[in-house]
Write a structure and sequence with these properties.
- Helices cover 0% and strands 48% of the residues.
- It has strands at 2-6, 9-11, 17-24, 32-38, 44-50, 57-59, 67-72, 77-82, 91-98, 113-114, 118-122.
- Strands 2, 4, 5, 6, 9, 10 and 11 form a 7-stranded mixed sheet that branches.
- A hairpin with a 4-residue loop joins β7 (67-72) and β8.
Length: 124
Amino acid sequence: VQLVESGGGSVPPEKSVTLSCVASGFNIEKWAMTWVRQAPGQGLEWVASINGIGRTTNYANSVKGRFVVSRDNAKNTAYLRMDTPLSEDTGVYYCAASFPAMKFTANRHDYLYWGQGTQVTVSS
């Protein structure tokens, strides 16, 4: 069982980028998926969550209106689209899975599965 994030890298400010989180070893259909990030030298920060069928989403105030969380259960994949990324969005982005309810925390112990992370650096 694992979650593998991808899509990070060096991103110019305000250029949209989409992160992917592919699950293997389990079917994410009934699992809530969450994105958490860690800025350089900072602690973990909850970013966004989406429920199992993708009808309910929640966002941290710091990203609300700029990020969009989504999922494609047929592809066993969750996504985080970062529209208009800013320098303060730089960090390692992790995806995590909880069952069945969404979690709105950055505490690893609240999630059964946690990915290895993908680095996003917003810089001109």
